[in-house]
Amino acid sequence: MLLKNVKNFFSSTRSITTRLTVFYAVATFILLAAIAIFLYLGMISFLYQNDKQFLADEIDVVQYLLGSDLDQSALKHEVRDVPFVLAHSMYHYSIRVIDHNNQIVMQTPGMRDALKAADFFNKTSTNIGKRDQWWFAPNGDKYLLMEVVSQNKQSGNGVWMVQAALNVSAQHAIINLYRQRAMTVLVVGELFAIFIGYLIARRGMRRLYDLTEATKAITATSLHQRIDTESWPKELRQLGRAFNQMLDRIEVAFSHLTQFSDDLAHELRTPVNILMGQTELALTQESSPEEYAQLLESNLEELQRISHIIENILFLARAENPQIDLKKIQLDVHHEVNKICEFYQAMADDKNIHVNCRGTACLMANQVMFRRMISNVLSNALKYTPANGKINFSIREIDDEKVEIKLQDTGIGIPAEHLPSIMKRFYRVDPSRSHDTGSVGLGLAIVKSILFLHDGELDITSELGQGTTITLTFPKA
Ligand SMILES: Nc1ncnc2c1ncn2[C@@H]1O[C@H](COP(=O)(O)OP(=O)(O)OP(=O)(O)O)[C@@H](O)[C@H]1O
Ligand SMILES: [Mg+2]
Questions:
Q1: 440 C-beta closer than 6 A to ligand 1
Q2: N or C: which end of the chain has fewer CB within 10 A?
Q3: Does pLDDT of 438 surpass 60?
Q4: Does residue 389's CB lie within 6 angstroms of at least one atom of ligand 1?
Q5: Mean pLDDT score of the chain, rounded to an integer?
Q6: Distance 363 CA to ligand 2 centre (A)
Q7: Is the full-model pTM beyond 0.70?
Q8: 234-317 architecture in CATH?
Q9: Given 2.30.30.140, 3.30.1380.20, 3.30.565.10, 2.110.10.10, which CATH number is that of 325-475?
């Protein structure tokens, strides 16, 4: 029940500071209480053993005198005088000797009234040996009582009894004082622990508040800001670093996005401006039907260009959707490549370029995407290979798991400094010629995202004026 309540308390208390403070306070309480109880029990045991030993020693002396041949004056001194002298010390004790007829032979002055023989265990006890117990007198005094039954040689081995009582009120006062002080230390220590625990927990949590504030302050225009985690505790430093790294990634992605929308606007602006310019011109001047036909033809080209851009952007957006269902099927690579080559045959014939495909292999891929990828690399090869050139596809299985499709052309090649950027969106080696060639710079970006979706790899090597080789590595399954 208690455990359930504690559990409920922690599950309903959201604040980590409160939890840590409570944990700290409970731990400190347990520690302080354990120390106090340990010392308390140790002190009680020490005082009790001391008192017991003291009484036992006194009884031993009396017993010795009872059994010895010494005269009674030594016994009298031991029973009546010595305790009387110690009456105001901490060891205020009394002794009584009872003979085999149950008659009190001798006792310390004052013992008769304060401690009757009946207050002891059993004045008729015949069990040989010492026994002891605490006794609380009606007047509030506390005593340690001890009695011993022994045989007395002088009375023909009759059973005598020696009773001793030590007033332990002073010791009990010490114990009470200790208990009170221990309680005070426990309460003050606990309050102090709660205070310190709260400060420590709050201080530890301060960095989380910093992180919260930093997170709140981040906007699209302040993505460059980072948190200084150097002074943070080790455990939180990792969180701070991870947060900064996340900001790095978001900043890069955000700048890509900004760049992308810039490029997109730029790419669309050109055909739209041409469309507007041509249409305005046609509206302001009289034109012949042939000129209008020409204008429409030119407008159609620009519209096709816009449509090409939109279609490619849409394809990329769909391909980058993480929830995309690839719907892979078994493909005969040679057959698929041949199909695309047939599609581009007219264009190849125009430039008298010989397209050749060798080798065969099978793999699992999305057919539309696979064809799109082959189409993009082949259209590049055709676009950037001068007349009378050669384009070679070679297909092979690298091992049980991978298929390689290599495309070599004898085209213009790509300058080495452009190779690393060639797959970026809207990137072209020679943007000035892009309008004439109808290049948008999205072909290889699409190839890259198709390969990414299929866990494939892309490698481009090129020599200026000699040609380009594109190697596509695909997993079979
Ligand atoms: N086989 C090649 N030979 C020479 N240059 C190439 C070849 N393939 C690509 N490039 C260069 O890489 C650039 C990017 O190619 P990518 O296919 O991404 O765009 P694009 O062909 O210009 O336009 P898009 O394919 O969108 O119509 C091209 O502009 C071209 O400069
Ligand atoms: Mg291209």
A1: yes
A2: N
A3: yes
A4: no
A5: 86
A6: 24
A7: no
A8: Orthogonal Bundle (1.10)
A9: 3.30.565.10
